[in-house]
Each structure stands twice: as C-alpha cells, then as structure tokens.
Backbone:
C-alpha cells in the first residue's frame, strides 16, 4: 500500500491546505487529523501547543505517512524546530513558504501579517521575513474574530466588513503592499479582506505555497506518486458531525465517514 501525506490542524482550517494538496498532488493519498477536542490552539501556551503537536504527529505516524504537513500557523510557529529535531519524517509548516512568497511579492518592502493571537505573539513570520530580507518593514495584527466568522459562514456583510476595517486599519496606515493570511481559516475571508485593503495589495495564501513545497520535497525524496487514484481519510478528536458539516465549506466538496479518535 502506498504511503500517504499526513496533515493536521487544530480543527477545520487546515482543510484549505488539504484542498491545495489535492489540487496539486491529485495522485497522493492524504490522512487529515483535526484536533477538534482541543481547538483553538491560538490562545494556548507555547508549551501546551508543542505537547499537542507532538501527540498529533505520533498519531499520524501510526497511519504510516511519508511526510507531515503542519497546517496550523500556531503549531508551526511554536513547534516546528522541536519537530524537525526529533522526527525523521519530513515536516512542512505553513510559516516559511508564506514568508518566502511575501518577500518575493512585495514591491515597497512593507509586509502585513494577520493571524491568531498565538501566531502574532510568537513573531515567527517576522523572524522568517527578516532572515530573508532585513530591510522589510512588518506590521503584524491579530484578528481573532476571523476564525469564528469563517466557521459560521459569515464571509460577507456589514458586521464582517466593519470588524475587518477595524482589524486591518494598522495595515492600511502602514501602506503595506503585501499581506500574509497567517491563519488557515482566513482564505475564506479573502473577498472582504481584499475589499478593505484594496485590489493593489497582494494577499499571500500560504496553502498554495505549502503544496508547492510538499511536491518539491516528495519529488526530491523519490516519494512522489505520479499516477493512480487517491484516497482521503479524515480523523478528529471530537465531534465528527460538526467537522463534516464545516468541511465542505473549506474543502469545496463533501466529507463523509469522518472518524473520531478516542485518544491521540
């Protein structure tokens, strides 16, 4: 049996990454784990996020995966160095691919980052960007209400737009020309974010860059499947019905047979 790509997130947001993986790697099997019993990660301590992340990695390794994608910005920002030091399986986070694309895309060297409180507090995007180009000016803003908006399907309307204008005001004031969507929920809110910031601002969706990175690593390791059908399995730590109901919005297709895992 061919080995799958493992993907995990604190909940459903990582399905935006999974969607890109399916689009760019149509012959690859995917095992997705959503830690729905312990979501959200963005408000938890670094130590707790690292512990959860290691437990999630161990669960995916039991599924015999060949690469693991940490499709959670908070987990990527807190735990990636620990994971790369302690696990032999290739691990891809969402921070570095997004940072690289933003540095490449910016014209005026002013980049905005939006994410959860945990991601913004850890300043991992800022560290990555500064390593690539020390001259870039970065404005980082936490947008915690964007996650429940995405999960409730509040993607348009006056309330969402008003909150977006409030959150994104510092980015407009800083005259950024590129903004990293530093949370896997945020691509669903692209239309309202673009409306507030203007069409001239480039929005960097890390999901696409992550899929490119995964494809590159698999090709380099000789692990890329170039033909054949694929299967996609979904596991959660709680409430599979809730997950399946939201999954179609994030993935663009129905998700059936989501399995609950009693312990990770």
Residues:
């Amino acid at each position: 049996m061919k080995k799958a790509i493992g993907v995990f997130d604190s909940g459903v947001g990582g399905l935006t990454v999974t969607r890109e993986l399916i689009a760019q790697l149509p012959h690859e099997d995917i095992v997705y784990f959503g830690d729905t019993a312990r979501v959200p990660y963005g408000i938890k301590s670094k130590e707790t996020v690292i512990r959860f992340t290691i437990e999630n990695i161990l669960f995916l390794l039991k599924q015999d995966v060949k690469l693991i994608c940490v499709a959670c910005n908070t987990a990527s920002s807190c735990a990636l160095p620990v994971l790369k030091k302690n696990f032999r399986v290739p691990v891809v986070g969402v921070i570095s691919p997004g940072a690289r694309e933003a540095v490449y895309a910016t014209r005026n060297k002013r980049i905005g980052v939006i994410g959860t409180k945990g991601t913004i507090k850890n300043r991992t995007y800022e560290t990555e960007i500064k390593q690539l180009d020390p001259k870039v000016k970065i404005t980082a803003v936490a947008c915690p209400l964007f996650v429940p908006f995405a999960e409730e399907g509040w993607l348009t309307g006056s309330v969402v737009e008003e909150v977006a204008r409030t959150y994104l005001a510092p980015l407009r004031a800083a005259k950024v020309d590129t903004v990293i969507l530093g949370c896997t929920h945020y691509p669903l809110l692209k239309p309202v974010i673009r409306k507030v910031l203007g069409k001239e601002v480039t929005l960097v969706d890390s999901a696409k860059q992550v899929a490119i990175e995964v494809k590159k690593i698999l090709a380099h390791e000789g692990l890329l499947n170039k033909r054949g059908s694929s299967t996609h399995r979904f596991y959660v730590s709680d409430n599979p019905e809730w997950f399946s109901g939201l999954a179609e919005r994030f993935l663009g297709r129905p998700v059936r047979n989501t399995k609950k895992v009693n312990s990770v």
